[in-house]
Write a structure and sequence with these properties.
alpha+beta; Chloramphenicol Acetyltransferase; 2 domains; five-stranded mixed beta sheet; about 35% helix; about 20% strand
Length: about 450
């Protein structure tokens, strides 16, 4: 759920503005993409499988409508003497690529669909010439389609995919039925948010900048003992390893959190700090987490496609051989303080730290933890169709290790996504096994000392 608060409204930009400033979050992506333009672009994408009689024409018109509603999906970028700007294109919809695989043998269609989609998810998109949004519809059978929309990350974040799904869920049935969709007009656009940020008061930014400068001073990068030699430049593909812990362990994790006045997220984060302490030998390092960002807390922006998400670096303090319960208390305090200062864009945090750049290492933190509080059902429901996932994995990871955790009907699922240029499958399998052992130990013995806990992990 979004924590939508009644902050001061975002005003519509002056009508004479054709070229708009970049938000600080966009400026960070611009720098990354233009400094290293030869690699694949950072992308976010939606992929759905439709079982049933899809009206392909109505679906294409629904996608067109979403693109026309959200200016950011029609935006390109340009260099100017004072820096890059973003320019909104006309509302002409989008060309949907249609790939018909029905001539292939039935047992080859799904694999070929995955190959084609993975090819399109490893594109290098030019921010200046575009297009920065691609969409395809693959026909595996008359009643079996796979649809994907791929968007450059400078235009959209993960929450934007939910916005798109919700709108498509309203538009498609209305277009099929020939009725008017119940979709209110958008009061502002992402460009209005970008303009408002460029003229915003910076007092709170200065306060947040000082907080992060102090919080992350002297932070050393995380290096795992069993990692391969770090490549000079990041570029290896990603791989992933998934595990599921039983529902009983998930329930006991939640019980431990309640007893310590912590959320499940805090328990899992503290356990991950223990795991990486064991794997690195370091008791002082940061783990990154994503947060929704300032834009998603404003009512008029909550329904927009755009880049609002931010990242926080949560520095773990494992010094002094604490008990796990003591570590939980430290984690709770760190999380609460960080969320009070979550609005400063991560790129500005990095700039404030003045940390040396290394093309083979992400700055600030090298591991991320991504946690979903509740079980997520499909965000898209369409009448007459069964909407299924069509998992493709993650083609490239900017950090060394990303750990995803989410509840599900079979228990708490964890997925370890890793850079294959740095970590091997056996090493990551050991981490996944160790993470479960840490959790099983601490729910039984929350007062166990760190030194003893790592022996059992």
């Amino acid at each position: 759920m979004l924590d939508v608060t009644a902050e001061s409204p975002v005003n519509v930009r002056p009508s004479h503005l054709v070229e708009l400033p970049l938000t600080p979050l966009q400026a960070r992506w611009w720098l990354l993409c233009t400094t290293h333009p030869s690699g694949m672009s950072p992308l976010v994408d939606l992929v759905h499988r439709f079982r049933g009689p899809l009206d392909a024409d109505a679906w294409a018109r629904a996608v067109d409508t979403v693109v026309n509603r959200h200016e950011i999906l029609r935006t390109l970028f340009a260099d100017r003497p004072d820096g890059p700007v973003q320019v909104v294109g006309p509302a002409n919809g989008i060309t949907m690529e249609v790939l018909d695989l029905r001539d292939l043998p039935g047992d080859q269609r799904e694999q070929r669909a995955r190959e084609l989609l993975n090819e399109r998810r490893t594109l290098a998109l030019d921010l200046r010439t575009g297009p920065l949004v691609h969409t395809s519809l693959l026909r595996l059978a008359d009643d079996d389609h796979v649809w994907r929309m791929t968007i450059h990350h400078i235009l959209a974040d993960g929450a934007s995919l939910g916005v798109i799904d919700r709108e498509l869920g309203l538009l498609y049935p209305a277009l099929v039925a020939g009725t008017e969709p119940d979709l209110p007009e958008l009061p502002v656009q992402y460009g209005d948010f970008a303009w408002s940020q460029s003229v915003a008061d910076t007092e709170k930014e200065d306060e947040d900048r000082e907080y992060w400068r102090e919080q992350l001073a002297g932070l050393a990068p995380l290096e795992l003992i069993d990692a391969l030699p770090r490549p000079a430049v990041k570029g290896a593909p990603a791989a992933q390893l998934a595990r599921t812990v039983d529902p009983e362990l998930g329930r006991r994790v939640e019980e431990l959190g309640r007893a310590a006045r912590c959320t499940r997220f805090m328990v899992l984060l503290a356990a991950l700090h223990v795991l990486l302490y064991r794997a690195s030998g370091r008791d002082d390092f940061a783990i990154g987490i994503p947060v929704a960002g300032v834009g998603r807390t404003r009512p008029e922006l909550a329904r927009l496609v755009g880049l609002f998400n931010n990242a926080l670096a949560l520095r773990g303090d494992l010094s002094g051989d604490p008990t796990f319960r003591e570590l939980l208390a430290r984690t709770r305090e760190t999380v609460i303080d960080a969320l009070d200062h979550q609005d400063l864009p991560w790129g500005q945090v990095v700039a404030a730290l003045d940390e040396p750049s290394h093309p083979g290492r992400a700055q600030g933190f090298q591991a991320m933890f991504l946690h979903e509080e509740v079980e997520v059902a499909s965000r898209l429901a369409l009448p007459g169709l069964a909407v299924e996932d069509f998992g493709l994995g993650i083609p490239k990871v900017l950090h060394d290790l990303m750990v995803y955790a989410r509840p599900g009907p079979q228990g708490l699922s964890t997925t370890f996504v890793y850079d294959t240029g740095l970590l091997t499958e056996p090493v990551v399998a050991g981490l996944a096994d160790g993470y479960e052992r840490v959790l099983r130990t601490v729910v039984d013995e929350p007062d166990i000392r760190l030194s003893e806990l790592v022996k059992r992990a």
